[in-house]
Amino acid sequence: MRHIGIFANPTNPSALSAVQSIIDAAMAVSFSCALDASIRRCLPEFSAFPSFEEAPPEAIIALGGDGTILRAATIAVPLDVPVLGVNFGRVGFMSAVNSQEAPLALRRLAEGDYLVDARMLLSCAVNGGETHDCINDAILYKKRFSGVADIHVSINGVDAGSVFCDGLIVSTPNGATGYSISAGGPVVAQGLDVAIVTPICPHTLCFRPIVAQADADIRLSMHSDGYLAIDGILTRDISEKDVITLTRSQNSAKFIQFGQQNIYELIRTKLS
Fold this sequence. Notes:
The structure is a single chain. By secondary structure, the chain is α+β, with helices and mostly antiparallel strands. The chain folds into 2 domains: 3-113, 3-Layer(aba) Sandwich (Rossmann fold); 121-251, Probable inorganic polyphosphate/atp-NAD kinase, domain 2 (Tumour Suppressor Smad4, Sandwich), CATH 2.60.200.30. The protein has helices at 13-17, 19-28, 37-42, 66-79, 102-111, 179-182, 263-270; strands at residues 3-8, 32-35, 60-64, 83-87, 97-98, 115-126, 132-134, 137-142, 149-155, 158-165, 167-171, 194-200, 210-213, 218-222, 226-230, 234-238, 244-257. α2 (19-28) runs parallel beside α5. It is elongated and about 55 Å long. It starts with a strand and ends with a helix.
């Protein structure tokens, strides 16, 4: 690996101000750099660096919080390259290092002293149409503030029930520590590939979070209009005639790590 891409949250001043030091640290270990278009727009002094399209990177260094790392991963998945998350945010579940550790991380990257953690994705389609990969989750939720949504769930053709709720999350193991855990979803052990179905504020005690096998065929429908959000990035309207299908994607999201993570310790330290 000799060529990396740098991706930063354009609304995070700390991340943007670190771009020069990250470039310097990368070039000090003989990496060449490409910059995401958002950096080139916000920081014209870096316009001489090539874009990802002009010089596709072999890895992406994402500077920001979990949302930034997630957006970088949506670029990395089609390129089949890993992401190194450098935390400039508040929580940083998806980051491998903090900002002070970034120069050493780049040196270890150049020396090949790292691991690549390939994480399963879910593929989401509406009415059998175009598929979209979910790195964290797909969320089906009601359109109006008042009232509740009536969402029906089937898994592998078996009726899993209907639930009156504000919405419903189908998450990957990577997304299990996001919205799903906040809504009462389970902690998923590392290395376990599953799909997690978690209702948001269910108006019942009978419908609890469901852990399904990774390749399960999960189908959702609503008895009212609503919204579908994929990773909080792609959003579309949903009608009561629509059927949302989720199953395991053939792709994976790859993240650079420097040792085995302890998910339980991460939850204790990040969410305490």
